[in-house]
C-alpha cells in the first residue's frame, strides 16, 4: 500500500495553480489512460470546465484491457465526458522496430489523433498527464507533445507524483495507490520487434521472473540504452506486481561494463572506472538480484589488450564489493582485442581468489552470436577444484540426488560419453 501523508500547504498552492490553469483554457481534450496522473487531471478538468472537458482514451494492442476497464469505470462513476478512439501505432514501422525512440512514434500517433479530434469538435487545447517528476527523465514522447502543442497542466502547476496521489486520495479516485505501469510495449526488449502477438502474451500474464537491462553511469548513457531511472522503477514495480518469486522481491538483472559511456559518447570527460562505479550506484537503488559487468565486451574501444581487461575486471569486482551489489564478471574478450584465453584464465583465477559472486557459463565459452569469448561450465568446475569452493547447499544436494556429483562434491565420471552412446543407438 502506498502511504499518503497529510496534504502540505504548498501542495494546496499547486492544486490551486492547476485549477487556475485549467480555467484559463476555453476547452480541453484530456489524453486519459485511466492511470494515476491522467485520471486526476481528467477529474479536475471536469470539475473546472464541465462539459468543455473531453476525456479521450486511446484503444490499441499496446493498451492493457484492465487499464481501459479502469478508465471506463472512473468516467462512469465520476461523470466524465468520455470517448474512446482507436490508434494504430503498430502500423508504423518505426514503432515496431522498437529502438530507443519507440515512445516518440507512439505519442506522435496519439497526439495526431487527439489534435485532429480537437479541431473537428472545436476544443481549444490537448492536454496530457506529464507531472513535475518527469522533467529530468528521458521521455522521447515529450518531443511529440511539443510538436503538436500539447499542454501539461500538472507539470505547469509543479505537481509531483506524490502530490497527485495525495490529492487523488482526497478526491476518492481509486487510482490514488495504483502502482506505476508502463505500456505493454515497454516490456519488449529494445530492438526486438513489437508485434500484436507479443503484446497479447504479455497482457495475458506471460511470466516475467527477471527484468534485464543494460545501464550506465550517466543519464546520457542510459538514454542511449533507451531507459531512464523512472522507467527502471516502473519496470521493477511491474515485475514485483506479478508476485512470481518464492523468496524475496529482487527482480532486476543489470548489465554494465567499462567503456559503455565512451561508446555512447556520454562520458562528459570523466574516466570510465568512475562512471562504472556510478552504474553500480544506479543498480543498487533497484535492489537487483544480479549485476553483471561485461568488461571485455562492452568496452573494446577502451580496453586494448589482455592486461587492460584483467585490470578492469578486478577494478569492477572491487567497486562492486564496495557498493554492495551482487556483482558477477563476464570474463571475456572480443576477437579483435589483443587478448587470448590465457589472459582470461588469469583473470578468472584472480577473481576466484577475490571471491567473485559468479561468472558466466556460455557453452563452449564461445558466444557465436555476439562474436566474443567468455567462460563455460568447465571454468566454474576449475575454480571450485582449485579454490576448494562449494556450491549452494540446495544445488549440491540435487546434484548428488541425480547422480551427477558425489558426497565430496566432485562430478561422478560417466561410464561412457553420452553423445557417442546415442550415436551408436541411432546407427
Question: Can you walk through the features of this model?
Answer:
By secondary structure, the chain is of the alpha/beta class. Helix content is about 45%, strand content about 10%. It is built from 19 helices and 11 strands. The strands form 3 sheets. Strands 3-2-1-4 form a 4-stranded parallel sheet, with helices on both faces. It has a 4-stranded parallel sheet with strand order 5-6-7-8, covered by helices on one side. Strands 9-11-10 form a 3-stranded antiparallel sheet. Helix 2 packs across helix 8. The longest helix has 20 residues. The protein starts with 8 loop residues before the first helix and ends with a helix. About 40% of the residues are buried. The model has no long low-confidence stretch (mean pLDDT about 90).
Can you give the helix content as a percent range? Answer: 40-55%
The chain-level mean pLDDT equals 88
Total helical segments: 19
Largest sheet: 4 strands, parallel
Order of helices and strands: HEHEHEHHEHHHHEHHEHHEHHEEHEEHHH
Spatial strand sequence of the major β-sheet = 3-2-1-4
- According to DSSP, the number of beta strands is 11
Please state the structural category. Answer: alpha/beta
**Shape label:** elongated
Distance between the termini: 63 Å
- Poorly predicted regions are none
Kindly estimate the percentage of residues that lie in beta strands according to DSSP: 5-15%
Rg of Cα set: 26 Å
Amino acid at each position: 500500500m502506498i502511504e499518503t501523508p497529510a496534504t502540505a500547504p504548498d501542495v494546496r498552492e499547486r492544486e490551486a495553480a492547476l485549477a487556475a490553469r485549467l480555467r484559463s483554457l476555453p476547452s480541453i481534450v484530456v489524453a486519459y489512460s485511466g492511470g494515476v496522473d491522467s485520471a486526476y487531471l481528467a477529474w479536475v478538468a471536469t470539475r473546472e470546465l464541465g462539459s468543455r472537458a473531453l476525456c479521450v482514451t486511446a484503444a490499441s494492442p499496446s493498451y492493457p484491457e484492465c487499464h481501459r476497464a479502469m478508465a471506463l469505470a472512473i468516467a462512469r462513476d465520476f461523470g466524465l465526458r468520455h470517448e474512446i478512439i482507436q490508434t494504430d501505432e503498430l502500423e508504423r514501422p518505426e514503432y515496431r522496430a522498437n529502438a530507443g525512440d519507440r515512445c516518440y512514434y507512439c505519442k506522435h500517433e496519439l497526439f495526431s489523433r487527439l489534435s485532429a479530434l480537437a479541431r473537428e469538435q472545436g476544443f481549444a487545447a490537448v492536454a496530457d498527464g506529464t507531472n513535475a517528476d518527469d522533467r529530468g527523465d528521458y521521455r522521447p514522447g515529450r518531443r511529440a507533445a511539443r510538436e503538436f502543442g500539447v499542454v501539461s497542466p500538472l507539470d505547469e502547476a509543479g505537481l509531483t507524483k506524490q502530490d497527485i496521489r495525495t490529492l487523488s486520495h482526497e478526491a476518492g479516485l481509486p487510482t490514488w495507490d495504483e502502482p506505476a505501469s508502463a505500456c505493454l510495449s515497454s516490456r519488449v526488449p529494445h530492438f526486438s520487434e513489437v508485434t500484436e502477438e507479443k503484446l497479447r502474451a504479455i497482457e495475458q500474464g506471460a511470466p516475467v521472473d527477471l527484468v534485464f537491462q543494460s545501464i550506465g553511469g550517466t543519464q546520457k548513457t542510459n538514454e542511449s540504452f533507451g531507459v531512464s531511472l523512472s522507467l527502471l522503477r516502473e519496470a521493477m514495480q511491474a515485475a514485483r506486481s506479478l508476485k512470481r518469486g518464492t523468496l524475496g522481491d529482487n527482480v532486476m538483472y543489470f548489465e554494465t561494463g567499462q567503456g559503455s559511456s565512451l561508446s555512447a559518447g556520454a562520458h562528459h570527460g570523466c574516466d570510465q572506472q568512475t562512471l562504472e562505479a556510478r552504474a553500480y550506484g544506479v543498480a543498487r537503488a533497484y535492489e537487483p538480484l544480479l549485476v553483471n559487468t561485461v568488461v571485455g565486451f562492452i568496452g573494446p574501444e577502451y580496453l586494448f589488450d589482455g592486461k587492460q581487461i584483467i585490470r578492469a575486471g578486478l577494478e569492477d569486482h572491487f567497486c562492486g564489493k564496495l557498493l554492495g551489489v551482487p556483482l558477477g564478471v563476464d570474463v571475456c574478450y572480443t576477437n579483435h582485442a589483443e587478448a587470448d584465453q590465457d589472459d582470461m584464465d588469469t583473470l578468472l583465477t584472480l577473481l576466484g581468489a577475490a571471491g567473485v559472486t559468479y561468472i558466466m557459463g556460455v557453452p563452449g565459452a564461445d558466444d557465436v552470436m555476439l562474436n566474443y569469448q567468455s567462460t563455460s561450465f568447465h571454468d566454474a568446475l576449475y575454480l571450485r577444484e582449485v579454490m576448494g569452493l562449494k556450491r549452494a547447499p540446495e544445488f549440491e544436494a540435487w546434484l548428488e540426488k541425480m547422480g551427477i556429483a558425489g558426497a565430496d562434491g566432485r562430478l561422478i565420471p560417466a561410464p561412457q560419453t553420452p553423445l557417442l552412446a546415442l550415436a551408436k543407438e541411432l546407427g
